[in-house]
Amino acid sequence: MVASDLDRTLVYSAAALALDMPDTLAPRLLCVEVYQHKPLSYLTERAAGLLADLARTAVFVPTTTRTREQYGRIRLPGPPPPYAICTNGGHLLVDGESDPDWQRRVRDSLDAGCAPLAAVREHMLRAADPGWLLKERVAEDLFAYLVVERDLLPDTWVKDLADWADGQGWTVSLQGRKIYAVPKPLTKSAAVAEAARRAGASRVLTAGDSLLDADLLLAGDAGWRPGHGELADTGWSAPHVTALSERGAAAGEAIVESLLREARAWVRMTA
Predict the structure, then answer these.
(1) Cβ neighbours of 149 (radius 10 Å)
(2) Tens digits of residue pLDDT in 25-42
């Protein structure tokens, strides 16, 4: 089974593509998301072909912090995934529908293990400065995030918030212009373990770029992270996780290529 983050791991906004080569050498791109009638997310055409092959070779599980609505805008190449994980593990989709038993398990763990969402949201908004706060959102009553002017954000603000949130049973992650506050029990790895159990998977390959992907990477048998993102910026590593040097869309292509190569090798070995 392959469980991979989406944004800035497999798919990229125009601002995150990192097309730093001459224009004449830039790769052809496939748009996989449209939002408000405009193209929003892309991967290279080569990555698209590899991803379609990967989805036919292994059980491919998109694993994202996106809400179900946001995930629904993504149109990935290849057959529809039998499982998908949204809202950082809050929803396990089975053939496109959220599993109610998993929803109940998640809610029970949140109620027992961390401060209420309302208290964390109130603290974030009270500490934020209207000069750099663009908007705030709550994701399916599971976690909260702020959209900020990154250049105006004080250097220590995220760290200060993270220190406070840690004592409340929450974690904080800065991704681009978004600052996420997520309950510690709400993890991608827990939902991936459930998907692997249901799929009968004996080996799990993973990929991700942010702090919210660290538990996912640690839970896999092998993993990959790109040369950009929170994990790269902090030098995060693990013995079974390959830190790629590629950045942007080139990293997405390298990740899919690595996942496909490893999945094919496992299929041959177990055939």
Answers:
(1) 12
(2) 999 999 999 999 999 999
Query: Could you tell me which of 144, 160, 133, 10 has the C-alpha nearest to residue 71?
Result: 10
Q: How far is 124 from 114, CA to CA, in rounded Å?
A: 16
Distance CA 116, CA 105 (A): 16
pLDDT of residue 113: 85
Specify whether the CB–CB gap between 106 and 89 falls below 8 A: yes
Report CA torsion sign: 95, 13, 192, 207. Answer: positive
pTM (two decimals): 0.92
Give the strand pairing for 91-94 and 97-98: antiparallel
Cβ contacts of 106-114, under 8 Å, gap ≥ 24: 106/142, 106/185, 106/186, 109/185, 109/186, 110/142, 110/183, 110/185, 110/186, 112/185, 113/169, 113/183, 113/184, 113/185, 114/168, 114/169, 114/170, 114/183, 114/184, 114/185
Distances (CA, A) of 104 to 101, 119, 151: 5, 22, 40
pLDDT in tens, 253-267: 999 999 999 999 999
